Amino acid sequence: MGVEHVLIPDFGGVQQITVVEIFVSPGTTVKEDDSLLTLESEKAVMDLPSPFSGVVEEVLVEEDEVVKSGRAVVAIRVAGNGTAEGENEKEKSADKVTTADPVPEKTMADESGESGRGQGTGGAAGLPATGEAGGESVAKRGVHATPSVRALARRKGVELDQVHGTGPGGRIVKEDVLQAVAGEGGAAENKRQRPPRFIDEFAGFGEVEEVALSRIQKIGGSRLEKSWTEIPHVTHFEEADVTDLEKFRQQQNESLSGENVRLSLLAFVIKAVAASLKQFPLFNSSLLPESDKIVLKRYWNIGIAVDTPDGLVVPVIKRVDTRGIYEIAEELIRVSGGAREQKLAINDMQGATFTISSLGGIGGTGFTPIISMPQVAILGISRTYMKPVWDGQRFVPRRMLPFSVSYDHRVIDGAEAARFCISIKMNVEDLKRTLL
C-alpha cells in the first residue's frame, strides 16, 4: 500500500481557494469519490472527491485556510494494489501525488438570493457510512472541528457530537474537548456557557421541530450577510412593455419548431442589459475600498441565477456583447442544463461582471435582489402581466415586464440608477435596438 497526496486542482486561474469544511481526519476510511473537503472559490462552492479508496494518513490543511492550486491537502494510504495496475513494490511503497477534480456543487446566492422556481436550500451529496475499527466514517461529520481537535477527541475518548462548541460559529475547539474530559464539573461549566435556547421558548406555544441548516445555507448565509451589511443597497423599480417582443419571440419559436434552441424572454433581456452596461459602465465595475478606486471592466459577462434541486447556481455567459440572440439562447440552455445536472466546469461559474436573477417562473411584481460582491449591481426580473395602457385615445392591453435593480450607493447615485433602468426598458422594448 502506498501513500497518495491529493492536490488542489487548477481552478482556471483563480489564485486563492478557501478550505470551508473538512470531512475526514487521520484514520478515516474513504472510498473513491467520497468527499474529502469543501472548497470555495469566488462564488463557487465545490466538494473535492477522493480519487481512490483507502485510509486517510494525514490532513495537511485546516478549515478557513486559504490555499492555492497544486497544494497537497490530504495524504491517503491507498488500499489494495495502489492506483496503477502493474506497479512494482517499490512504486507501491513510494509517496505519490494525485490531483483530484472538484465537483461543482453550487454558488452562493450572496450573488442574488432568488431565481427560477425560488432559492433552493441546497444539501450535501449522499456519502457512504463506511469505516473500519478505530477509523471515523466519512458520513459521521455533523460537528465543526479541525482535524487536530478531532484527533484529540479520539485520543481522549470524547464524542464530539456531545460537546458544545464555544469557538466561532459554534466550532469545537481544543478547550471544549479538554473541558469535556474533566467530567461532570467540566460538563456543567460547558453547559453554563451555552447561549439561551430560543427553541425552548418557542416550544412553550406548540409543537416545533429543529432542523439543521444545510452546508450551503451556512456558507451562503454568511456571505449574504456580508454583502447586505457592507454594501449600502438601494433598489430602483421599473417595468418594460414587452407586448411586441413577446409576439416576435413566439413567431420565431414557431419557425424553430423541431430545433434544439428556443428563444426565451430572458435571452432578450440579457442582450438588452449588455447594451445598457456599455452605456453605463459604472454598473459593470467593482469598488476597491482599500484604495478608493473603481475598476471599470471592459468585458461584459452576465451571471444567471439558476434554481436547481441542490441549491442556487450562478453560471456565467461570457462576452454577451459579441453574441447574437440565438447564440445567447443556446448558451443559456447549455449552462442552465449543466447547472441542474451538476455538469458545469469551474470556468462556467467564474468572471461575472453583473448578475440577473429571475423569478418570472414563479410570480411577484418586484423584489430586492442582494448584490453579489464584488459586483456593484444586480437585476431582478419578475413575472410579466397584462396592464391597461392609455395610447392617447383609449386603454389597450399591454404585457408588462416588472424588473428591479439593486445597486451599491457608494458607487452609483439614484439619478444614474434611474437612467440605467430607463436604458434597459428602452432596449427591451425596441427590437431593433436589442438585436443590433
TrEMBL record:
CDD domains: lipoyl_domain. The pyruvate dehydrogenase complex catalyzes the overall conversion of pyruvate to acetyl-CoA and CO(2). It contains multiple copies of three enzymatic components: pyruvate dehydrogenase (E1), dihydrolipoamide acetyltransferase (E2) and lipoamide dehydrogenase (E3). GO terms for cellular component: cytoplasm. Its EC number is 2.3.1.-. InterPro entries: 2-oxoA_DH_lipoyl-BS, 2-oxoacid_DH_actylTfrase, 2-oxoacid_DH_E2_comp, Biotin_lipoyl, CAT-like_dom_sf, E3-bd_dom_sf, PSBD, Single_hybrid_motif. Residues 3-77 form the Lipoyl-binding domain. One of its GO terms (biological process) is pyruvate decarboxylation to acetyl-CoA. This is Dihydrolipoamide acetyltransferase component of pyruvate dehydrogenase complex. The lineage of its organism: Bacteria, Pseudomonadati, Thermodesulfobacteriota, Desulfobulbia, Desulfobulbales.
